[in-house]
Specification:
It contains 5 helices and 6 strands, in the order E-H-E-E-E-H-E-H-E-H-H. The chain has one domain: Rossmann fold (3-Layer(aba) Sandwich). The longest helix has 22 residues.
Length: 161
């Protein structure tokens, strides 16, 4: 299969341990599938609006794309838009190269699940979500705002159809 994974956590130059278990999962998947992993994140004091770094190891291709972090009063909206643009840039590049994913794999809610849903519609392919956050068990989720809870429930309901 050709798999496109979008993840919220993944090792990168500033934190080589973040999401290392997700990288190990991607490596295991790559033993018998072609997989592209997209990790998009904001970077403070980055001169370029977007900076895409790609590395390949057998069937695993890792795309780390950073975008300028906005700190204005509208930062949540601007950074969400830049995140979406970053992921779409990589997907468009892969599409242009002829890569056609059979399935999308969103790893760690919330933004990845939402993005997978958008791409699922655009590319007409199914998606799955994997979640590893301990906050659901420790009570941190219960302390989240009602907006975050509603968005989480909305993204999960999208899986039903």
């Amino acid at each position: 299969m050709n798999i496109l994974m979008i993840t919220k956590w993944y090792p990168y130059d500033k934190d080589p341990q973040m999401g290392v278990f997700i990288q190990k999962h991607a490596r295991a998947i790559a033993l018998s599938n072609k997989i592209h992993v997209i990790y998009a994140y904001s970077a403070e004091r980055q001169k370029e609006k977007f900076l895409h770094r790609e590395s390949e190891n057998g069937n695993l291709t890792e795309h780390r794309i950073s975008y300028q972090k906005d700190t204005s009063p509208l930062s949540k909206i601007i950074n969400a838009q830049r995140y979406k643009q970053a992921v779409e840039m990589v997907v468009d590049t892969l599409t242009h190269r002829g890569f056609k994913a059979d399935i999308l794999h969103a790893y760690i809610l919330l933004r990845t699940g939402w993005m997978a849903r958008q791409l699922s519609r655009k590319l007409n392919i199914p998606y799955i979500i994997s979640e590893q956050w301990s906050g659901y068990a420790t009570g941190k989720y219960a302390a989240q705002s009602s907006v975050v809870k509603r968005l989480t429930k909305s993204v999960l309901k999208m899986l039903q159809g």
